[in-house]
Every structure is written in C-alpha cells, then in structure tokens.
C-alpha cells in the first residue's frame, strides 16, 4: 500500500512540475510586456544586397519593435517575400513571344502586406526538345 501512495505522490509532483513549465513558456512569449494589439509591420529589409538575413520594423501607437527576418535569395523579388501565392502549371510556349506564362493566386499575406490577388510570371521557352524515347 505504501508503494502505491509513493507512486501517486510522485505522479502528482510530475504533473505539477509539467504545468509550471508550460506556464513559464507562455510567460516568455509575452516577455516584452506590450499590451498593444494593432501592430503594423513594414517589409523585410535585408542587411546587405537584396536577399538574406534582415529585419522588419513594427509600430503600434507610440511603440516600435524590430523583428529578425529572412528573404530567400531565390525568391521572386517582384512579389515581395511577404506575399505567398499558389501557382498553376506553366502554359504552352507562345510562338510570338517565345515565353511561357502562368498565374498565381494569393494564398497568404504575411504581416498585413499589401499584395496583388493574382500575379502573372513568364519565363523563356526551353530551346531543348525533350525526347520520350527509352534506351534499349
């Protein structure tokens, strides 16, 4: 009977410690102490060149903050790193322009970014002709 009581006591201590650890994580998330809820965030500004690590500035009433951010170097700079699009498949090659076209529909705008609902991208047609023959 004493073993059961000891195990029950250990289980209660473990549950209490776990609850306290979860509480501390929530407090760390709100460590800045800001009560402002209407933050306006600017675009991600790279530290050097036009991609890589950088920061974005946010303002809310009289407060301001800087957050670290990153713009991938292979990103479509034309759309901005805060606008995420769902693209369809590439269309056929236009004989007149020599370009392929596809459109993307806005999927998500991060940090209240001003994004276009639909965007169009083009790329040159491939000069190679892909053969579908298999080796024997």
UniProtKB/TrEMBL annotation:
Q: Can you give the residue ranges of the Pleiotrophin/Midkine C-terminal domain? A: 80-135
InterPro entries attached to this UniProt entry: Midkine_heparin-bd_GF, PTN/MK_C_dom, PTN/MK_C_dom_sf, PTN/MK_diS_sf, PTN/MK_N_dom, PTN/MK_N_dom_sf, PTN_MK_heparin-bd_GF_CS
Keywords for the protein's UniProt record, in alphabetical order: Developmental protein, Disulfide bond, Growth factor, Heparin-binding, Mitogen, Secreted, Signal
Principal place where this protein is found?
secreted
Source domain of life is Eukaryota
Gene Ontology CC annotations of this record: extracellular region
**Signal peptide annotation:** 1-21
Look up the record and give one Gene Ontology term from the biological process aspect: positive regulation of cell division
A Gene Ontology molecular function term for this protein is: heparin binding
Using the record's annotation, list all stretches that form the Pleiotrophin/Midkine N-terminal domain: 23-79
Q: Where in the cell is it found?
A: Secreted
The Swiss-Prot or TrEMBL record describes its family as follows: Belongs to the pleiotrophin family.
What the protein does comes down to:
Secreted protein that functions as cytokine and growth factor and mediates its signal through cell-surface proteoglycan and non-proteoglycan receptors. Regulates many processes like inflammatory response, cell proliferation, cell adhesion, cell growth, cell survival, tissue regeneration, cell differentiation and cell migration.
Name this protein carries in UniProt: Midkine
The major lineage groups are: Eukaryota, Metazoa, Chordata, Craniata, Vertebrata
Question: Which gene underlies this protein?
Answer: Rihb
């Amino acid at each position: 009977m004493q073993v059961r009581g000891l195990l029950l006591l250990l289980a209660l201590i473990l549950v209490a410690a776990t609850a306290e650890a979860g509480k501390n994580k929530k407090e760390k998330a709100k460590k800045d102490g800001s009560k402002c809820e209407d933050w306006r965030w600017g675009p991600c500004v790279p530290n050097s060149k036009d991609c890589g690590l950088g920061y974005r500035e946010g303002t809310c009433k009289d407060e301001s903050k800087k957050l670290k951010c990153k713009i991938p170097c292979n990103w479509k700079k034309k759309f901005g790193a805060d606008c995420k699009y769902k693209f369809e498949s590439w269309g056929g090659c236009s004989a007149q322009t020599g370009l392929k076209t596809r459109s993307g529909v806005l999927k998500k705008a991060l940090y209240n970014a001003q994004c276009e609902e639909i965007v169009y991208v083009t790329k040159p047609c491939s000069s190679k002709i892909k053969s579908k023959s298999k080796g024997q």
